[in-house]
């Protein structure tokens, strides 16, 4: 093998190993995110049941706005795009409110 070809093979092996290492970390982080979201939704389901029991509205715009501000600040501090963080939280909030509405409807017998 020529030196240039041998160097290319070494580089290709290195790149593949690095890709695999990084992808393994991403897979672990994705699993952690799923588990964290599951725990978060367990808590929000309890909030939904409490709200339904005491006939509180499914959404709490003040709390949501406060959480968005807090998450944007955390994102900025963590060097994460705050617009992305806000979109992500808005998606989660919408799903939580939907669950709360379903819980409230079930509590009313609808």
Automatic annotation (TrEMBL):
<dbReference type="GO" id="GO:0004106">
    <property type="term" value="F:chorismate mutase activity"/>
</dbReference>
<dbReference type="InterPro" id="IPR002701">
    <property type="entry name" value="CM_II_prokaryot"/>
</dbReference>
<dbReference type="GO" id="GO:0009697">
    <property type="term" value="P:salicylic acid biosynthetic process"/>
</dbReference>
<dbReference type="InterPro" id="IPR010951">
    <property type="entry name" value="CM_bact"/>
</dbReference>
<dbReference type="InterPro" id="IPR036263">
    <property type="entry name" value="Chorismate_II_sf"/>
</dbReference>
<protein>
    <submittedName>
        <fullName>Chorismate mutase</fullName>
        <ecNumber>5.4.99.5</ecNumber>
    </submittedName>
</protein>
<dbReference type="InterPro" id="IPR051331">
    <property type="entry name" value="Chorismate_mutase-related"/>
</dbReference>
<feature type="domain" description="Chorismate mutase">
    <location>
        <begin position="13"/>
        <end position="104"/>
    </location>
</feature>
<keyword id="KW-0413">Isomerase</keyword>
<dbReference type="InterPro" id="IPR036979">
    <property type="entry name" value="CM_dom_sf"/>
</dbReference>
<dbReference type="Pfam" id="PF01817">
    <property type="entry name" value="CM_2"/>
</dbReference>
<dbReference type="GO" id="GO:0046417">
    <property type="term" value="P:chorismate metabolic process"/>
</dbReference>
């Amino acid at each position: 093998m020529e030196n240039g070809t041998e160097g290319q093979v070494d580089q290709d092996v290195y790149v593949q190993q690095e890709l695999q290492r990084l992808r393994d970390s991403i897979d672990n982080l994705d699993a952690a995110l799923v588990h964290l979201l599951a725990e978060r939704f367990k808590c929000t389901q309890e909030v939904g049941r409490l709200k339904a029991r005491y006939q509180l509205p499914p959404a709490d715009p003040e709390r949501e706005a406060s959480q968005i501000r807090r998450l944007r600040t955390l994102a900025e501090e963590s060097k994460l795009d705050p617009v992305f963080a806000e979109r992500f939280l808005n998606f989660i909030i919408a799903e939580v409110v939907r669950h709360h509405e379903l819980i409230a409807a079930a509590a009313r017998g609808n």
